[in-house]
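in:
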């Protein structure tokens, strides 16, 4: 596996964990144990990316879905 492939795998894992977190927040609420576990999993990957200097890839499908959830939540709150 090349360095580029490793970076892409890490970015994919982070995006998947972020989507899982946003779905958990949406379904179970921010204070649920499920949400807390998802947040811990995502934060671990996200922190590792920061330490390694890996940028988020916001074009990945899971990130697009996660930001769609965020946008929908904001729209509902403003309505």
């Amino acid at each position: 596996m090349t360095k580029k492939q490793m970076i892409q795998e890490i970015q994919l894992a982070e995006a998947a964990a972020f989507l899982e977190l946003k779905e958990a927040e949406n379904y179970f609420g921010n204070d649920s144990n499920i949400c807390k576990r998802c947040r811990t999993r995502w934060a671990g990957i996200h922190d590792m990316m920061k330490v390694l200097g890996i940028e988020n890839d916001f074009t990945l499908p899971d990130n697009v879905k996660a930001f769609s959830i965020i946008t929908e939540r904001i729209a509902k709150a403003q309505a």
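note: Helices lie at 3-28, 33-52, 61-78.
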